[in-house]
């Protein structure tokens, strides 16, 4: 299996969620939302996790204290997601073959799902971009990028993240269909979080 990294995006202010930072919201099992994402990554065999912070950097670092992750603070986080992806890409070790870009707000992300994406990445000789897709083909996160695309990720700026780049690289990408859309859900509002809590997966967590 390729040596893979993950860039976890945890720099935003989550204004649509309200006064509380959504990544620090505690779920029914007591873990914060960002901790759920990190736990899934740790269970998947990914060897390097880079957490990009910005807004609430100290609190994000505190809630992940003691975990084998590296923190990179993006002092340009207010300019948009692109700057956070770029900060994470520039921080990656030289010996990784690829890297996931992982939003920090995916409470149902699982190690099994990540391993499925890694298997597809390996099956395509670690040269293709691999992303999960809904049954209708719609692209979702997290996306694993081969090392050859790191310079393009490191050059991103402003509000456009990897999705905008991916749209121009369809010939280099592979979709992995995921039947359970809840595994790919993210949280933007309190209603999104409540919907997740009513799902069987969340009730079992």
Short précis:
By secondary structure, the chain is an alpha/beta fold. It contains 8 helices and 7 strands; from the N terminus they run E-H-E-H-E-H-E-H-E-E-H-H-E-H-H.
Q: Could you characterize the architecture of this molecule?
A:
The protein is an alpha/beta fold and 205 residues long. The protein has one domain: Spore Coat Polysaccharide Biosynthesis Protein SpsA, Chain A, CATH 3.90.550.10. The chain contains eight helices and seven strands; from the N terminus they run βαβαβαβαββααβαα. It has a five-stranded mixed beta sheet, with helices on both faces. A two-stranded parallel sheet has the order 5-7. β1, α1 and β2 form a beta-alpha-beta unit. The longest helix has 13 residues. It is globular, with a radius of gyration of 16 Å. The C terminus is likely disordered.
Note the beta-strand portion.
Answer: 15-25%
CATH C-level class is: Alpha Beta
What number of structural domains do the residues give?
1
Class of secondary structure makeup: alpha/beta
Average pLDDT confidence is 92
Overall 3D form: globular
Cross-sheet strand order for the largest sheet: 3-2-1-4-6
Topology as a string of helices (H) and strands (E): EHEHEHEHEEHHEHH
Number of helices: 8
CATH topology: Spore Coat Polysaccharide Biosynthesis Protein SpsA, Chain A
Provide the helix percentage.
Answer: 25-40%
